[in-house]
Prior knowledge:
Elements: E1 4-5, E2 11-17, H1 26-39, E3 44-48, H2 54-58, H3 70-75, E4 92-93, E5 99-102, H4 108-117, H5 123-131, E6 137-141, H6 148-156, E7 159-164, H7 168-187, E8 193-199, H8 207-218, H9 232-240, H10 244-247, H11 252-265
Parallel strand pairs: 2-6, 2-7, 3-5, 3-6, 7-8
Antiparallel strand pairs: 1-2, 4-5
Amino acid sequence: MQLKINLTGKYVVIRVLFNKKGGVGKSSLAVNLAAISASQGFRTLILDLDTQCNTTSYLNALGASAENTIAALFEQTITFHLRRRPALEYCQPTQIDNLYIIPGSERLSELESELHSRHKIYKLREALGSLSKEFDHIYIDTAPALNFYSLSALIAADRCLIPIDCDDFSRQGLYSLQQKISEIKEDHNADLEIEGIIANQFLANANLPKQIINELIDEGYPVLPEYISQSVKMRESHQAKKPLIALAPKHKLTRSLVAIFELLDNGKAAR
């Protein structure tokens, strides 16, 4: 994998969180991993590619000007501008030091068909190529669908993290998802790797989640060895619009998220 290098000489990692199944915690994980990255001194960017804008809401960025959203960045690729704004101008600071966001927008739905018809599928990769000079870590949150934007993200990213909620539907969906990512890797992005599968909302006292995880490991899937337990603290974090590293840095759930971040940052994720 050919990782990019930023202006400080550090390797830059672009990660996309993706699963076609909804409700598996993509936005929560994306925001919390990005916030942990920022808290450890890494200049970090997160992109919200979901029209539900949960990541944007979580980071209290819904008030951002429409001119500074991800929709505006895509729109300028299909409209005439005397001056195209560089991607860096869309990156907005958040309440967390070192953490920036390109906010989401419901307008992505309006633009999707035209972007697709004009073959703009590589425009996000171009934008992130320029932004990789400015940031250490970049995270992308996606919708629970393989649409134009999710495909753009998978083409732009180096690594894919797949959250699952440890039920049989998630396991069955994972099989087709792995096949689709393999196709994207072959046709569009040779550098794309599944970095890890994250067991989210894990019930340690129940047999089924442990059975499913063990079966996935036996089948060779790269399940990360740290599991995210079900906790009301995550919902409290959503309501407070504060990532857990800011709201409850010593909580068990926060420690699990930090452990996952460190596995990824140290290159010790499952392969």
